[in-house]
Each structure stands twice: as structure tokens, then as C-alpha cells.
TrEMBL record:
Residues 96-112 have a biased composition (Acidic residues). PANTHER family: KELCH DOMAIN-CONTAINING PROTEIN, KELCH DOMAIN-CONTAINING PROTEIN 4. Gene3D superfamilies: Kelch-type beta propeller. It comes from the Eukaryota. This is Uncharacterized protein. Residues 88-112 are annotated as: Disordered.
Amino acid sequence: RKAVRLYKIGGIVSECLYSPGCGLKPPKDSPRPIGRINAAMVVRGNTLWVFGGMLEIGDKEIALDDMWSLDLNKLNGFKCLKELTTLPKDMRPEPSDSDESGDSEWEEVDGE
């Protein structure tokens, strides 16, 4: 049997799909998970897997049941493997993104 390492990483609410250090930002319309806390995250091979977590809306805590993957070699965006069913669509927060261009291709970010 081959030993497999599994890392569970907790984190803060984040909607960052890219590393500012790589100089690229994702297209505004690319699918991505909503911000969450206490998600289960695993890196296996070259794929990042994200499952569940919790979302706070006001004083309510809502458990999330969606699953996403991200190919770390390509970094071409998240892929939704299981849709979110625990939160009605009208209650879902909009992703925070200051990009107003709406382009569908990855753009280079000017160095600051």
C-alpha cells in the first residue's frame, strides 16, 4: 500500500482565485466558490479540492455543501463538481470584484 498524505486547511473568508504575485486576475464571469469559513481543503496531485464550509449572513450560520476543484498546473478557474443546495440563490452574496471590464480572458495586472 502506498501512503497518502491528506492536509485539511481551515481558513478565513476569501474569494481570491489568483495569486497577486503571478500578475494575473481571473475573468469577472469565471465560476468560483463563494467566500466561506471552515471549508475542507485538500491538495492531491495537482488539484485543489474544496468542500463545504460555513457562511455567516447576519447572525445566521449556514452550512455549505458544494464541492469545487482547481487544477493547480493550469490555474484556469474553479470547476463546480457539486452545486450548492443549502442556500437559496437569492440569498447568495455576489463575488466581490473591483474589475468592471467584464472580459472573459485572464488579464495582466499592473505592478503596484
